[in-house]
Target: Cell division protein FtsX
Amino acid sequence: MAKSVDEFNKKRLRSSNITVVISIALVLFLLGLMGLILINAQKYSDYIKEQLVVNAYFDENYDAKDSVKIAKLEEETFKKVQTLAPVKKATYISRDMAAKEAKKTMGIDSDALFEENIFPSSIEVALKPEYVDPAKIDGAIKIIKAVPGIVDVKNDSTLMVDVYNNLSRILKWILGFSLLFLVLAVVLINNSIRLKIFSKRFIIKTMQLVGAKRRFILKPFIIEAIILGAIGSTIGLLALGGVWYYFTSQIGSAFVQDNNQYFWLVILVLGVGIFISVLSTIFATWRFLKSNVDDLYYS
Model:
């Protein structure tokens, strides 16, 4: 009879542990997925911002005999622009290149329309993502315009502001959902741990009544919480890795694009799983340590 009771208790304990592990794995899988979406959304946001370029123009009026001198001046100016703080990438566009681009845009193959290269040489500047901010774009343009040799800087400010605001709005929504999933992770894991500790409330109180110290009672529960949290987090991360590998292979993207960010995401998910498990265990166990025997029947 005693053997059958022990076997029943062991099966119930295993079932309880499996439930906790699965709960942790599922919740942290979703949390990690939101983290991956947030990381890649930020990267694609930065990529799109870098496509919003400004054009810095050189003086188009100069004597043909000074062409060598002007070419050297433009080369020096181009190098200076490349070193400016707001500049992510700079591309030099000569008069010939500008004329070819104009013909391509207008669908003209003949040179008959242009007797000479009427377009000035320029520098196409891709700004760093943080300088696409409407509050900083004007300052970045002033910095570029102050470089000797640059006579004018033009950009489609309306387009930049619209794109920046839309991207910022999308990132805020994704961040909001990530925080929501973090809160859900805390609540769901906490509930699973509390149910597990609830099933052991009589054991906890019995140990306390026979003289065991609270630290002694808490220790095995905390160790078990660390193990369950680590196992659940690992399963969640393995599932996340499998899903992410399948997704990146389908779209032809690299599985790992930023080792540093992915590493910290793994550490965060693992840490959240263990931390919440331990914290929930301590609170749930402490509750029964402070309660009376009679309260155990009504908890």
User: Anything to note?
Assistant: The chain has a mean pLDDT of 77.
